Amino acid sequence: MENNKLDYQYDSVVQLDDESASSRKFIANVFLWMFVALGISAFCAYMFASDMSLLSQLIDVNTGRRTGLGTIVMFAPLIFVMVMSFGLNKLSAPVLTILFLLFAVLMGSSLSFILLVYATSSVLGVFITASAVFGIMAVAGYTTNQDLTKFGSLMIMGLIGMIIASVVNMFIQSPGMSKAISYIGVIVFVGLTAYDVQKLKRIGAGLEYGAADTKKMAIMGALTLYLDFINLFLSLLRIFGSRK
After folding, report:
1. Rounded to the nearest 5°, which phi and psi values hold at 87?
2. Which of 199, 169, 201 minimizes the C-alpha distance to 185?
3. Which residue of 36, 72, 82, 127 has the smallest Cβ count within 10 Å?
């Protein structure tokens, strides 16, 4: 009877260790894909901002207005996110990966405009700041033992409010409201970073590493964290960025 008790405890420890290892591998894979996507986006943004022949495909250099292709590039990432999210169960892992990489290309092309509006040193400084804040909150979300589910729900409500306010501000063009949205955006995406990392950690613990579904979930997790980081970066840039 004593031996049975020891065996039970040993089996329990092994199971916990297996779940922890699976979670770590999953999170590492998520961040790897996120960094790949960010690298692709940064490269595309730089290429379009520095090459007038490429930039002229997106905006009319004389008037500063977007071309038809520029408008498509601006809205295409949203379409890609919707296709990936709603088609997750139907799409294979390779197809989902290709869509994610194409999404990163389109986002980078769209983000090239910020290099034309803001000073390069300012963009770099804000990027480093956003990276530091994102990293701190990611670690906090991964290591905390506190359940962030209710906190995450609150952040999602804040995100919905931001979207509604942004749509309204498109019509009234209020600088004050735009500034307020940016400040709220920083709070929301800082909070969502911690919440999403904790959620992904729990997802990883319940998945069999190496399975097709795990690969797809890693890509979707990378997409989630990519969007958290980009939106945090853009919110900080609107507040602290120095225009040319």
Report:
1. -100, 15
2. 169
3. 82
Collapsing DSSP to helix, strand or coil, 145 comes out as coil
Could you give the CA distance from residue 17 to residue 28 in angstroms, rounded to a whole number? 16
Q: How far is CA 226 from CA 11, 33, 90, 219, in A?
A: 37, 9, 22, 10
- CA 192, distance to chain mean position in Å, is 10
Domain residue spans of the chain: 2-240
CB contact burial 69-83 (16+ within 10 A = b; e otherwise): ebeebeebbeebbee
Contact 45, 111 (CB under 8 A): yes
Q: What is the pLDDT of residues 206-240, one digit of tens each?
A: 765 555 588 899 999 999 999 999 999 999 999 99
Q: Does the pLDDT at position 27 exceed 80?
A: yes
Please state, in angstroms and rounded to a whole number, the distance separating the CA atoms of residues 21 and 98: 27
Give the C-alpha separation, 49 to 39, whole Å: 15
Q: Which amino acid is at 92?
A: S
Maximum C-alpha span of the chain: 85
Four-point Cα dihedral 112, 237, 181, 165, nearest 10: 0
User: What's the pLDDT score for residue 8?
Assistant: 39
Higher pLDDT, 141 or 52: 141
pLDDT tens digits along 109-140 = 988 888 888 988 899 999 999 999 999 999 99
- Angle CA 156–157–162, to nearest 5: 95
Helix (H, G, I), strand (E, B) or coil at 212: helix
For residues 69 and 65, what is the distance between their CA atoms, to the nearest angstrom?
A: 11
59 SS3 class: strand
